[in-house]
Amino acid sequence: MLSPAIYADPPVQAFYAAVLKMARAGKLGQVIKQESIATSITGAQAWKIAYISSDISGRKTISTGNHLRVVFHDLVLREVIKGLS
């Protein structure tokens, strides 16, 4: 006996809901949306970002990630981009 299909509709944060509606237009690597996020790291700034990427076939896609910048005495010590999709 087969069970009927069950579909989940989890809540999506506003940032990602807006990204889902965006066109996949622009240059590869171009940031198309960003939002500042809080961090407890002294001297750091962080953002959620969405940018133009491509799949293995070369079709444009939108990827998201987090960008963290650590600054100490006006020197950028480290920048990290962590991809989420």
Could you describe the 3D structure shown?
The protein is mainly β. The chain has one domain. The protein has one helix and four strands. Strands 1-2-3-4 form a four-stranded antiparallel β-sheet, covered by helices on one side. The longest helix has 7 residues. The termini are far apart. The model has no long low-confidence stretch (mean pLDDT 84).
Summarize this entry quickly:
This protein has 85 residues and is mostly beta strands. A hairpin with a 6-residue loop joins strand 1 and strand 2.
Please render the helix and strand layout as text.
Elements: H1 14-20, E1 31-37, E2 44-54, E3 60-72, E4 75-83
Antiparallel strand pairs: 1-2, 2-3, 3-4
Key attributes of the depicted protein:
mainly beta, four-stranded antiparallel β-sheet, 47% strand, single chain, 85 residues
Distance, first to last CA = 36 Å
N-to-C series of helices and strands: HEEEE
Count of separate DSSP helical elements: 1
Q: Output the radius of gyration.
A: 17 Å
Number of strands: 4
How would a textbook summarize the main sheet?
A: 4 strands, antiparallel
Give the helix proportion (percent range).
under 10%
Low-confidence stretches: none
Principal-axis shape:
extended
Oligomer: single chain
DSSP strand (E) fraction? over 45%
